[in-house]
Amino acid sequence: MSVQIQPDFSYTIPIDTVGVEERVSRLNKRSIKKESKLLALKLALSMIDHTTLEGKDSEGKIIQLCNKARIPYAPLPDLPPLAAVCVYPTMVATAKKALLGTSIKTASVATAFPSGMAHLSIKLADTKFAVEQGADEIDMVISRGEFLKGNYNFIYDEIAAVKEACGRAHLKVILETGELETLENVRKASDIAMHAGADFIKTSTGKVSPAATQPVTLVMLEAIRDFYNETGQMVGMKPAGGIRKAKEALQYLVLVKETLGDAWLTPDYFRFGASSLTNDLLMQIVKQLTGVYQGIHYFSND
Prior knowledge:
Blueprint (H helix, E strand, L loop, with lengths): L16 H11 L6 H13 L1 E4 L7 H12 L13 E4 L4 H7 L6 E5 L10 H13 L4 E5 L2 H5 L3 H15 L3 E5 L8 H13 L4 E3 L11 H18 L4 E3 L7 H14 L12 E3 L2 H14 L12
Parallel strand pairs: 1-2, 1-8, 2-3, 3-4, 4-5, 5-6, 6-7
Helix pairs in contact: 1-9, 2-10, 2-11, 5-7, 7-8, 8-9, 9-10
């Protein structure tokens, strides 16, 4: 039995904040027109983790959410389904049943989401329960307090333990970048998560402001690029929280293409954590196809 040697995370990679912001600004000036824009809008739609994480979530709401993920807009039956439906562990079985026979993944938050303030044994039990209920993907949160104290080995060990508890399920590691304070910390947390076994790294829970931002996402994409160059292993990326407009979604896709290349432009390696983004993408797709904007009330809020 081989023993995995934990990397040394005492280093800090300096981040040129001005340079990051300038690159984001420059890439945001890219213009996508006509057929290319329609293809990009449909691609973004296929990358959405359709999410509800509210205390009032019910089985009926989850079923409606799954129906929207299967058929985003009935008048356009050829649209791609969404990538996943993300719910609390107690709602996984309902989502799994509603998505039976589709390619849509059932995702679940776990590990004392969104705070992460629980003992590891509770986090592992939370994860195992979600997987037993049928979750294909687990979205865990790191312990930001421990990270900010410099307990990097703690973060690594916690992620590795949750990864093992996931079994067959993929693991998305939420950094909650709005609480990490610096881009250097975002880079370090990204490196720790990937070395510990993350299948995806994710910006935010959506419960903290700021949530996803393009500068933070660019730093995480560059970490993924460097990890791939070092190990040959592809890790996915998921910006989540605050992405509501189709224009923003296309800007994120440009960041991915220019930083990682076409191989990452697939739901297998890039997702949006969103709820309201779905309808804005649908509005823009209809506009591209018909030349006419439809009001938001033409689309369900599920």
